[in-house]
Amino acid sequence: MNRNATETRAQQPGGSPDRALRLHDGTERNPGIPLDADEIASIRVNRSAVERRAATIPARRTVKKEYQAAWLLRAISCIDLTTLSGDDTPGTVERLCAKARHPLRADIVDALGVRDLQVKVGAVCVYHTLVPTAVRALEGSGIPVAAVSTGFPAGLSPMAQRVDEIRASVEAGAREIDIVITRAHVLLGHWDALYTEVRTFREACGDAHMKAILATGELATLRNVARASRVAMMAGADFIKTSTGKETANATLPVGLVMTRMIRAYEEETGYAVGLKPAGGIRSAKSALKWLIMIKEELGDRWLSPHLFRFGASGLLTDIERQLEHHVTGRYSAANRHPMV
Q1: H helices within 61-190, ranges in order?
Q2: 277 is catalytic
Q3: Which domains are assigned to the chain?
């Protein structure tokens, strides 16, 4: 991937009311930087090189036995445990939140000897109407509630309505907001419009952290993925996220590799760390390990943390729990022994 280098710029876009807010690890949030349209136009992606590199990740690296168990425990801590179904009810969300507090059965926790770690997920992600239910169910746990917003999943509702939706979710107690971009801005190369849109959403979020969903399966090319990633970060996104989970194509390693390279370049140039959230189609422990290995190799150990990396998933936890039970018993159990709700 080749881009024109830009000088380090820590200043915020003109007129922004943002304060120097902090990430959970104490470092400063990404406040955003002014849009550089020439830089966006210069971004190139070598697709064949990206695909070759992505293919080597599962082929060259593997973890076994107690090391695999440790990696899977880390994966649990990075899960945004999600329910985004049309038939969601307060009871469904309450049961999901109970699972978020205690993602592993007590006998597995004791067999692994990790009770002192107090393993829990990174967040619980729900629709706006169920934010108050999730906030009450997670009270005292330290687990944040994330709300999908801005006309999720299409993101085509009127702008004022999308902004109001963000503010309502924040007022209801959501500490993280997953927004969706207008894909047409990317497909048509309207970078000013994309920047303004994401910047507006970021300002509406206030102190709540914002994850910008790029819907990469609908952006047509890896070059568009790279450009959209860069613009979202320039506009102040705390995380960039692959997918809504509703597209035909969701999180893939080549897409993730492009996004991690853009995150790395942005941090090198500005000093601000932006997180990554792959979502959609990540259902197995094996897939989760591939993503964690890629993050370690491309971004380093600092990103192996829920402050800078999340899985958007619902079924992933079930398979991780099955794998951990196999580690301690030598036997695979049925998935129905590890219910989500």
Answers
A1: 65-77, 90-101, 106-112, 131-137, 159-171, 183-187
A2: yes
A3: 37-329 (3.20.20.70)
